[in-house]
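hi! just following up on the protien thing from before. the input was this:
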Amino acid sequence: MFVIVFNQNNLVPDGGNNQLVYKFPSSIMLTDKFISISNISLYYSWFNITQALANNTFTYTWTSGAIQTTYTITIPDGLYGIPEINGYMQFVFINNGTYWITDNGSYAYPFELILNASRYAVQLNTYLIPTSLPAGYTPPPAGFPTVACNPVVIFPQFFNEIVGYNVNFTSAYNQGNTYVPPTNPTQSQNYVSKDGAGTISYLSNFAPNVQPNNQVLFSMSNINNPYTSPSSIIYSLNPNVLVGEQIYETPPQFMWNKLIDGTYTELRLSLLGNNLRPLIINDPNMTILCVIRDKSELQVI
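and the predicted 3d structure came back as:
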């Protein structure tokens, strides 16, 4: 049995930290050889929301007078849970002047995203924007609507998966507080409720996929497995730690994969996401041990 060590010295210097190349000291003939992952150590440092994944934007409207303006919220590349997304939304609201301040100094925003753990859903609450505020309140810098209304929130493709809503979900405008929620929604619809103050609440209608790449697929060059697609996948790793912590895994048993017979100068290991695209890993500190065995050692017929 032979051990091969992939670490950050083997990384292809393209900034992605997802391809490692092990170069043999000289050309080597590999015939009837099998390879397996032996040990993995790397940090949970890949983003769930990025421009590359096209899941970093959604829109909302604000009505000033009779003019409705659409704002785009563009989330910077990063690792976000729903509370962090909601916090960034509030930052955008303040920059856009689409907020107001109550008489006790609290900021009020046009809508929010929160976790609804009991329903295993993301809840969207949109609030009725009034035409005026009581004494002691600070009015929104962006101005009041002529007729009270709720912001219109739209979740486009890919971001919709993060929060568990259909593509291009659009919340109700509720102008004049006249919107009537549907009764007995189907599975393809969002559950909707409305209170007397004009607050409209929606729930995800499918399981939110907050981390689209919740596993790492290890792809090894020169593997030909006719039972998988792509044929090069030799292992799958699911993070069992918090974001930013070190993942350390030793498989309970070796999962042997046959190398294509031939002369080798190198082996290339790629780290892929669920979509089989290279996973952008931010922390290059990693060590991956592989072992190679001969067919006769495995007692493979």
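The first strand starts at residue 2 and ends at 7.
The chain has a mean pLDDT of 94.
cheers
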